[in-house]
Amino acid sequence: MPSHLNEEEDKPCRACSDFKTWAKKQNKSKPQDVKPPPVTEKKECPLDKDELGRHTWGFLHSMASYFPEKPTHTQSNDMSKFFNIFAQFYPCEPCALDFKEDIAKHPPKTKSRKDLVKWLCERHNTVNIKLGKPVFDCSKANERWKDGWLDGSCD
């Protein structure tokens, strides 16, 4: 195995595969009678604030969920730098300023995957509260962003 790969990278990974490939690695198959939806020519448009936020949170939570369980000192520092740089360049200026203030009060916790997942969930809940949205149960973060719901609804 190449030195840059670790044992976890050999495991099937939803974020690393399309669903069909992931399902095959899980020894599951898609029912044969299900046909893919027809391809339509829909033009993609720029993301609005809500779409940008939803996609960004999905990306950030997925990134945290796949962060090493025991990162090196360099990985830990790089992830902290990432969040600080991310806050500088986020396209929604009021959101970026708000996030910068929040992470100044609550710096990224990057000593482990568990710490980072919890920290990011707390940051997301801070935004949810400000927007009047429901607070997410951070104990369910792995189900939501990495492993899939225990009820099998993601399989």
TrEMBL record:
The keyword DNA damage does not apply. Gene3D superfamilies: ERV/ALR sulfhydryl oxidase domain. Keywords: Disulfide bond, FAD, Flavoprotein, Mitochondrion, Oxidoreductase. GO terms for molecular function: flavin adenine dinucleotide binding; flavin-dependent sulfhydryl oxidase activity. It catalyses: 2 R'C(R)SH + O2 = R'C(R)S-S(R)CR' + H2O2. Residues 24-47 are annotated as: Disordered. It is found in: Mitochondrion intermembrane space. Its main location: mitochondrion. It comes from Danaus chrysippus. Signal peptide: none annotated. InterPro entries: ALR/ERV, ERV/ALR_sulphydryl_oxid_sf, ERV/ALR_sulphydryl_oxidase. Its EC number is 1.8.3.2. Residues 45-145 form the ERV/ALR sulfhydryl oxidase domain. GO terms for cellular component: mitochondrial intermembrane space. This is Sulfhydryl oxidase. The keyword Disulfide bond applies. Its cofactor is FAD.
